[in-house]
Amino acid sequence: MPTSCKDIVGQTGLHLIQPDPATLPFVTYCDMDSTGEGWTLVAAVHENNIQGKCTVGDKWSSEQEYSSKYLGSKNWENFNVFGDVLDLTWDDYKNVAYHALQASNVMLWHVPNALAISEISDQAYLKYYTNDNVLDQYGGSLRSLYANYAPLNNAGPSRFYELIVSPIEYIKGSKDTIMADIPSDEVENVQPGFIQFRAFDTFGFPQALCPGVKMVTGDSARICVGGNGAAVGDQIRVPSTRRKVTCGDYAGWNGKFKDPGLADVPSSSGRSQKYINSSILIFVK
After folding, report:
1. Which residues have CB under 8 Å from 210's CB, separation 6+?
2. Helices (H), 107-263
3. How far apart are CA 12 and CA 159, in angstroms?
4. Which part of the chain is the Fibrinogen C-terminal domain (predicted)?
């Protein structure tokens, strides 16, 4: 039984693997084309309701609404699995390979929602991957990286943290593709060409993943995914700080759009409908 997509000779698509001999084999998606050897899909981040704040379906942030007890999703750090590989662009997804497969690099795809599994590769408008063996430095898996080196705890107003950032190479898209959707008042606060693992907003609330950029300064809740963030918008009040927070898989992406009919146009404070209505697929190799 292959332990990962690297052990498979075949076409891009669904394959049976068993990275952990203590658990049953399972089917996941393998990308066999991007770099000449198999990338194993381990997770997908999907925002099912941008208006909902840590409500049902926000598995990468919290499904418990706002509470200091649930601040920062532990699903980035634990052994939970959830979702169905056939529903990658309809729901959040995480399989055993997220923690059990020893890997070196990470690849992200940005894929429009509501696609069949056979369509996701052709329809992805961004594909990029790390090339510095980042996971080798942090335990060999995303679970280890977050649990042991970048836990998603509130950092407080000081926002002191170790920055884990990896340069990326593009398979589809470019720095311009990514920067075209950054809110205009955050453009100077990010640098494209990277994946950042963990960031904090201006009040110390964590986000797990900054896709395609690293934060120089500014409000990471409007840039990054998977956590709770203090940001302007439709919010929940935090009694202990008298601040308000947005809370959800795509936390602070929901700004006011210049034109709701223009899917590709972001606003000064939010992402475009194109990005909000897409899923981020996470692969490792």
Report:
1. 190, 194, 195, 196, 197, 199, 220, 223, 224, 225
2. 120-123, 142-144, 175-179
3. 41
4. 1-42
Cβ neighbours for 161, distance < 8 A, ≥ 6 positions apart: 150, 155, 198, 200
Tell me how far apart the alpha carbons of residues 140 and 6 are, in angstroms, rounded to a whole number.
15
- Rounded CA-CA distance 107/179 in Å is 18
What is the spatial distance between Cα 252 and Cα 234, in angstroms, rounded to a whole number? 9
Confidence band of 245 (pLDDT split at 50, 70, 90) = low
Number of domains the chain is built from: 1
Contact 129, 169 (CB under 8 A): yes
- Structure confidence by residue, pLDDT tens digits, 38-52: 999 999 999 988 877
**Amino acid of residue 129:** Y
| Distance of alpha carbon 65 from alpha carbon 37, whole angstroms | 41
| Model pTM score | 0.92
Pairing state between β 164-172 and 236-238: unpaired
Range of the domain at 97: 5-284
Q: What is the phi/psi pair of residue 128, to 5°?
A: -155, 160
Angle 149-154-158 (CA atoms, 0-180°, nearest 5)?
Answer: 95
